[in-house]
Each structure stands twice: as C-alpha cells, then as structure tokens.
C-alpha cells in the first residue's frame, strides 16, 4: 500500500487538489450568487428573476465537467489528450457565450420592462415597446447560438451542405413556416398601423371580446370579462373585422330599447325612459351650448318599430366609455322595469292561445 502511494504520489495529490478546487469553486459561486441577490434586494429593491440562479447552476456544472476532464487527463495521452484539451476550450467558450447571452437578454428584458412600466404610469402607449422586446430577445438568443455554432468543428462543411440543398430546404421551410411568418408579419402590421393597443377593449368578429394584454410575435392575448385568457394568432386577428371600444373617441352611444304593449301609453313610456336615463349619474351630456339654449333634451327617445306584439321605443344615451356603457345599460334595464310596473306600462311577452276543435272528454 505504501509502495502504491509512493509510486502515484503526484497523481493522488493532483486528484485531491482537483476535487477540492471543484468544491471550492462551487462554494464560491453559490456564495457570490446569494450575496449578489441579497445586496440587490437591500440596495436597489430589485427582486431576482432567476437569472443569477441559472448562471450559478451553469457555472457549477462547468466546474464539475472541467474537474472530471482534468482527472481523466492523467490517464490518457497523445491524440485523446489533445481532443480533451480542445473540448475543454470549446466547453469554456460555450459556457461564457451562454452566460453572456443570458445576462444580456435578462438586462435587455429588464430595461424594456422598466420602459413599459414608465409608459404605463404616464398613460402612454406601450404596445410598440412590448412587441420590440420579443424581437430584441429573439435576436440576442439567435446571435448567441451563432457564436457557438461558428466554432463547432466541421461547421463550415455543414454550411456548405445546407447551401448545396438550399433550393429544397427553402421550399420545405417556406411551406412549414408560412403560418409562423404570416403571424410575425401580421404582428408587425398591428404594431405599425395600431388598429388597437395594449389596454384596449376589442371585439373580434364573433363573440370574442376582451382587453388586449399582450401582442407577441405569434399571437395577441385578450383577457375577457370572465378573467379568461384568449390567444388569437396575429394572422387571424389581422384578417377579421373587429370593434375597438377604446378608439380615439371613447364615448359610447348606448341604444336602449324597450317594448311596450299596444294598449300602453306611449308618451308616458317615453317620458319614463328619458327621466330614468337623465337621472343616472353615468349619463354624459354631449349637447352643445346652442342645443342647450334651444331646449334639446339630453336623451333622445323615439318609437323605432311597430312589432308584431309590441311597440319598440329606443333611447339614445351617451356614456364616457365602454365600461360605463355596460353599467349604464344594466342599471337602466332594472330601473325601467320597476318604473313601468309602477306606472302601469305593460311589457308584452310571447304567449299562445290554444283552441281545441273537439271538447275534451272528462272521466265520470
């Protein structure tokens, strides 16, 4: 045993030093990461997004791999030794590029998040910044990947092979990515021409209505009134007809219709509808000074249809925005029903009279 230790004294010390160094590097990396997070929270009030932990894990894996390679180098020589050294350089280079890419992407993302929050506080439109964030982050990750691929052995040969079959690949890629490219181009059109913005309430043709909370490279995200997320591909939302409830002029003309029976007093019903609308606190008076002077009513009320079983009366009432419009409508439907009941105005409902040709036989 003593002879063994004496013969391999250098190798044993080398292995022990390597193992201790690996554990020491892992300890230092973890200590620095935790210290950095603590300081950033204390001084800057910054909460880590996981980047520091990810970098720590990558470095700890690197130390472990390099430690294993360093030990293996003791038992190999010649060509294998050279290949391991080359692989070690490539691993170190790739790790540096990956860490640099992650840190740069995280910093860029934080900058965009900060700019978006400032625009939101100032009540400015953050749509373009949110969309550009996805483009910038995608470009950073692609650039980092290219930096790694450029040093891969035999990459030039792969490039030549790819270029040699560029015609076939272009056709395949064109067919496979047609929808993806369509979504990206549609997203650029949405951000450029701005039919809607982040925070707008829109209704896509059909029943999809919600608040726009994000516009990515692929899709637009809506949050409906049931707090559900609706994901619509940009290529689809760019083709569909949509209503933007938060356009330049956010005022909404609420057309409130009520049907009354033919026996009811039309003038009284119109008076009730006008009074209830004008008494509601969310009503918006859009009359000009001249119209006020001429005595024009705040709310226009008129008979719009003589239906099969009812006289349809409509009130045109304005509110400041779509949210107030919904509240206004729901409140008025309730108060009008109660007022009509009090004033004896009948709201007809479908009914059917059945006549029997032959009298029913009753059991004796």
Q: Keywords, please?
A:
364 residues; alpha+beta; SH3 type barrels; Alpha-Beta Plaits; five-stranded antiparallel β-sheet; three-stranded antiparallel β-sheet
Number of domains: 3
Question: Largest sheet at a glance?
Answer: 5 strands, antiparallel
Q: Flag low-confidence runs.
A: none
Overall mean pLDDT score? 80
- Distinct helical segment count: 12
Order of SSEs: HHHHHHHHEEEEHEEHHEEH
* Net shape: elongated
Mind telling me the C-alpha Rg? 36 Å
User: What distance separates the N and C termini?
Assistant: 119 Å
Can you list the strand order of the major beta sheet?
A: 4-3-2-1-5
**Residue share in helix:** 55-70%
Total DSSP E strands:
8
DSSP strand (E) fraction? 5-15%
Given the helix and strand composition, which structural class is it?
A: alpha+beta
What does this structure look like?
The protein is an alpha+beta fold. The mean pLDDT is 80. The radius of gyration is 36 Å and the shape is elongated. The strands form 2 sheets. Strands 4-3-2-1-5 form a 5-stranded antiparallel β-sheet. A 3-stranded antiparallel β-sheet has the order 6-8-7, covered by helices on one side. It contains 12 helices and 8 strands.
Write a compact overview of the structure shown.
This protein is an alpha+beta fold and 364 residues long. The protein has helices at residues 2-7, 9-44, 51-72, 79-121, 127-149, 155-164, 166-176, 178-193, 234-237, 266-279, 289-293, 322-343, and strands spanning 201-204, 208-215, 219-223, 229-233, 242-244, 252-260, 300-306, 311-319.
């Amino acid at each position: 045993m003593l002879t063994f230790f004496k013969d391999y004294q250098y190798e044993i010390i080398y292995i022990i030093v390597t193992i201790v160094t690996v554990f020491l590097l892992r300890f230092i990396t973890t200590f620095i990461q935790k210290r950095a997070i603590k300081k950033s929270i204390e001084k800057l009030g910054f909460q880590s997004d996981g980047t520091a932990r990810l970098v720590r894990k990558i470095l700890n894996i690197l130390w472990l791999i390099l430690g294993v390679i360093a030990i293996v180098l003791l038992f190999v020589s010649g060509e294998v030794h050279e290949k391991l050294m080359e692989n070690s350089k490539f691993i170190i280079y790739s790790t540096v590029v990956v860490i640099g890419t992650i840190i740069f992407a995280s910093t860029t993302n934080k900058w965009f998040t900060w700019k978006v929050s400032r625009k939101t506080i100032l009540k400015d439109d953050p749509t373009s910044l949110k969309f550009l964030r996805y483009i910038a982050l995608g470009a950073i990750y692609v650039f980092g990947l290219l930096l790694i691929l450029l040093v891969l052995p035999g990459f030039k040969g792969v490039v030549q092979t790819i270029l040699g079959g560029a015609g076939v690949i272009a056709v395949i890629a064109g067919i496979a990515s047609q929808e993806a490219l369509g979504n990206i181009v549609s997203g650029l059109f949405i951000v450029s021409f701005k039919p809607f913005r982040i925070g707008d309430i829109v209704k896509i043709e059909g029943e999809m209505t919600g608040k726009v909370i994000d516009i990515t490279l692929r899709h637009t995200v809506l949050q409906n009134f049931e707090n559900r997320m609706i994901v619509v591909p940009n290529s689809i939302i760019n083709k569909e007809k949509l209503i933007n409830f938060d356009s330049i002029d956010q005022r909404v003309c609420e057309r409130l219709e009520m049907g009354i029976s033919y026996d009811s007093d039309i003038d009284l019903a119109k008076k009730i509808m006008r009074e209830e609308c004008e008494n509601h606190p969310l009503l918006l008076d859009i009359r000009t000074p001249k119209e006020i002077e001429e005595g024009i009513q705040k709310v226009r009320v008129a008979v719009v249809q003589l239906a099969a079983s009812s006289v349809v009366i409509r009130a045109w009432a304005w509110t400041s925005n779509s949210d107030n419009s919904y509240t206004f409508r729901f409140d008025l439907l309730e108060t009008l029903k109660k007022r009509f009941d009090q004033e004896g105005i009948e709201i007809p409902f479908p009914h059917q009279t059945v006549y029997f040709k032959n009298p029913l036989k009753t059991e004796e």
